[in-house]
User: Fold these one by one.
Assistant:
Number 1:
Amino acid sequence: MAFSEPMKRWDVVVVGEIYADHVFSGFQRWPAAGEEVHAEHYVRELGGGAVNTACALARLQHRVRLIGLIGEADRSWFETRMQGFGLSADGLRSDPLGTGVTMSVSTAEDRSFYTYLGANRRLAELLDDETIRAELIAARHVHFAMPLAADMAKRLFPLLRKAGCTTSLDVGFSPDWLTDPVNQWTCRAVDYFFPNQTEAQWLSGGESAEAFRNWASFMDIRHGVIKLGAAGAAAVVNGELLHVPPPRVDAVDMTGAGDAFDAGYIDGVLNGESTQDCLRRACICGALCTTRIGALEGLPDSFSLRSIYEQTYGT
Ligand SMILES: Nc1ncnc2c1ncn2[C@@H]1O[C@H](COP(=O)(O)OP(=O)(O)OP(=O)(O)O)[C@@H](O)[C@H]1O
Ligand SMILES: [Mg+2]
């Protein structure tokens, strides 16, 4: 950082949809309409990519602000859970629509989701709020974990660039967003773009990482990074794919692996590391996330990130 650059209040501001996840598992079968079936297990956890990435970055000791909307009734739950990661809930606004809810229901073979958007409906309005804008420009890096609308991106990105913030985007599984040409501007404007393999396919029309490379090169994407599940990840650098394998782990639950990956990559960016190093940190965070049930329990701290890094890739 140049000596004259003013100290930013936050390392990262993460913006996106926030959910209360209700995870029911161990059903023997799917019920017919009007029937009741009983779950073997139930857990309630904070959810949504924004929460997962913010918690992961806070655990890596960055100064993180999470911005989004919840119902007031859930505030103390969010405060307590986020505190465990060294993250304050003060960036979360309360809204009468209540916290968004995702219900995940699974048998041994299948999983289905039921979602209520709740307060997340007001996210676009929130981003037009002057106080929130001030929080965003007070960050070194702003990560959007949401299908950011094109008009909002066009308003925000020039402001952020002018304030010296780098940016990243994970739109999640949003076929409508990914296939709408209006969003190509956003893909080009963001500094780091993080689709997974399925999302990349919606963009490029092809299944392979090479198809993503061709699309990203043609579109002039600044840093296109594709997440490849157990095969790791690849970044497009000067028209070529730079591939990094993940550490070998006993994966038990993939929930949130992509969000943890984003955090690891941003950790590298904030530390001024090379693309290869950012990919390695990201792959470690994604892989470790899969070793525990849920998105939050497996997230590494800086110490375990460093030790797995050395074991996997050498020093
Ligand atoms: N089985 C695995 N073994 C090792 N690493 C894994 C495994 N699964 C995922 N990862 C790591 O986590 C990263 C993200 O996983 P994935 O490609 O599934 O993202 P995603 O589909 O966006 O996930 P999410 O469901 O959270 O949105 C991968 O790029 C990889 O580095
Ligand atoms: Mg994802």
Note: The first helix runs from residue 49 to 59.
Number 2:
Amino acid sequence: MYNEYLGRQTQNNTQNVLRSDDIKYLWHPYTDIKNFERTTFPIIKHGKGIFLYDTEGKKYFDGISSWWCVNFGHSRHELIEAIKEQSASLQHSILGGISHPEAIQLSKKLAKITPEGLNHAFYASDGSSATEAALKIALQYWCNIGVTNRTKFICLEDGYHGDTLGAIGVGYVETFHKNFKPAVKESYRALSPNCADCPFKKEASTCNIECFTSMEELIIQHHSSVAAVIVEPLCQGAAGIRIYPEEYLRRLAKLCNQYEILLIADEIAVGFCRTGSMFACDRAGISPDIMLLGKGLTGGYLPMSAVMVTDTIYNSFRNNDGNDRTFYHGHTFSGNPITSHLAIAALTLYKDLNILEMIQPKIKQLKNGMEEIGKLLNNSYVSTLGMIASVHLNKESGGASRAKRIKEEALSNNLIVRPLGNTIYLWPPLISTENELNEMLSLLKDAVKKTI
Ligand SMILES: Cc1ncc(COP(=O)(O)O)c(C=O)c1O
């Protein structure tokens, strides 16, 4: 397709034609159209390792793993081969009433690596659709066992579980979702564990998870009408990389257990080694009733997501005594053979490359580097978790508007980052080498210095 443009145009003219056709025909997600049209935005043509290359041959560090998913970087041959291999033998066959080996094998592997008890995989298409499926599974579970009044959800303020209406109902971010609020089913919202701006003015050394009281009160007050609590374990990503203590999750799991509320852990962003453990729930030593997986499940090569559930939940969906308990939910591409085969290859790669061990020294490197950047920004609050590192720019350092300028400077320095409000962060591919990490950190530091 690109060659088609090249064929008709001179090299220089090609960029202009692509840009004007983009502005004319393409609608970009999460993009301010007016601003976008004024910029000479990169048009990415190919990727290799942790780099993206635009049509002009300019090379960019992928500092956010292309929206938190390309854990193995770009053009990883094992993953490309998996796609090719499977598309040559069976590109699609449904899971409604029939099966195929790829989905069977993948489900078995996922049951093995996810926390204990999550033995069944239901496949969706992307993160948002996994959230929708999980919420419906939770609602129907209670109906299946004859409890009809458990129809509400508890979630965290500023949580994010996708952009579909059901997902917004449990994960409202004001800037993203305010226009849709009237159409959304409301949930009970517990205080966000926002350590960068602790409402109790606590620091790590004095914190006793005071913010958990809000969750506790909601559970105690409303448990009899609540189907499930849903959280992003350990890191509220889209809210601005709010990293919170493992103890919060442990208390939550205990309380959900005590009040017989289902716990849904949305590991779409943080699953698959990102936190320094296979799953964030592993770090806290908890096993939720439902776990959501996406993004890194396929190494970010094709969209696929999974909802893992316990035996108790799964078995409640068996038709019994003449009662229809079928889960009437599915997507055309649920458990597609290509994405399933690809996910199996990605799971093999996590193991073969020994990703968990490989990233340990880099976790420290990233933390140290980001702490230096925090110092340059008026000692702004730095939070890190595994291969996620963020600085929350305080007012004195310029807050959200400075963060925006840093992003622009970084881009002109060939580093792709995207601030979330006043938070700038790195979420690098897990295969980044020490040198590459150093370069990313120093490009970010340069961008910070240039925006003083
Ligand atoms: C925690 C979490 N859940 C769900 C989603 C939605 O995933 P998708 O963008 O694939 O719909 C995201 C996306 O960033 C996410 O971070």
Note: Residues 126-128, 131, 160-162, 232, 237-238, 266, 268-269, 294 surround pyridoxal-5'-phosphate (CB under 6 Å).
Number 3:
Amino acid sequence: MEKGLLIFMGLGGLAFIVWGLPLVLGRKKLVRRGFKGTFLTFDDGPSEVTDQLLDVLQACQCQACFFLLGEEVVKRKETLKRIREEGHGIGLHGYSHKHPLKMTYWEQKKDLERAYQIFKQEGICPNYYRAPHGAYTWASLIFCKRHGLKIVHWTGLVGDWELQEEKILLDRLVKLSGPGHVLVLHDGTKGKANPLCKALVPLLVEDLSRKLATSPAPLEGWTGL
Ligand SMILES: [Zn+2]
């Protein structure tokens, strides 16, 4: 075999180990078997719509999991407490939402530690982790292992941040739902509330809880890494 080809294959293998393998490991076990309902998860909050969302979830007796950003939690500590008190799952989503692949190992470790400490100061230990942009890295996998966080990726990305119409959103949610499926919506968009999430609130009451048969147990028994 030519030397050039060997070097090319070696570099390809190395790139897979450094960047590809943690992505594969983080995203495995997408559909949670043995569950009847669809899991609702909300990323990037808390924001000013999160409390309204919690009211709705309470009214329809649904529970969800919130993947929160450290820099938003410091602005809304009461909302964090409410999420916990009302029995929803709490997941870490990093401190700044900077793309993990644009940070060094040490930068990301620092970002995750900073976020984790904010939860700890409030007496709350997050149980789950979801990477910003779904980009799992060695830094995040090692961090999760050390702190006992289960990785929860999604099976359905609804794209609510780019949609303007509630009906399209609802159709997509219904299409992507299924037993053990995990749908991701956003109650925050980097410090701002997602306007569509506000619109989603009445839909959750009228349609979503019936159509999606949202599980009453938030992620219990999930097996992450
Ligand atoms: Zn996010």
Note: The radius of gyration is 18 Å.
